[in-house]
Amino acid sequence: MTIQEFQNQIEKLYFEKDEKRGIEGTFRWFVEEVGELAKALRKNDPKNLEEEFSDCLAWLVSLASLKGIDAQKCVQRYFPHCPKCKKLPCSCP
Ligand SMILES: [Zn+2]
Q1: Domain spans, the chain
Q2: How many angstroms does the Cα of residue 73 sit away from the middle of ligand 1?
Q3: CA distances in angstroms from 39 to 23, 24, 31, 33, 91, listed in the order given
Q4: 82-87 average pLDDT score
Q5: Domain covering 3-76 in this structure, CATH number
Q6: Which alpha helices (DSSP H) does 1-93 contain, by range?
Q7: Separation of CA 86 and ligand 1 centre (Å)
Q8: Distance 24 CA to ligand 1 centre (A)
Q9: CA 77–ligand 1 middle distance (angstroms)
Q10: Of 30, 34, 50, 77, which has the maximum CB count within 10 A?
């Protein structure tokens, strides 16, 4: 699955709800999920970590969709090298 397919799926699942909720409300949900990821990192339970990373990705991609941002383009920015120093691996200070 590509990130584009993932974004399409998240749109099919949630775009209508997210649009009604609006960008501010959806952003708050995203931040809440980041908080849950912080807890999962502290607990270090692999199952829970996977779930929280998944939720964070889903909410982040949802926000991108609400703003008309193509997640595929976001990912491509990191290919073939660091967008800042143009090196692989990054050699930014
Ligand atoms: Zn760099």
Answers
A1: 3-76
A2: 18
A3: 24, 23, 13, 10, 31
A4: 98
A5: 1.10.287.1080
A6: 3-43, 46-66, 71-76
A7: 6
A8: 31
A9: 12
A10: 30
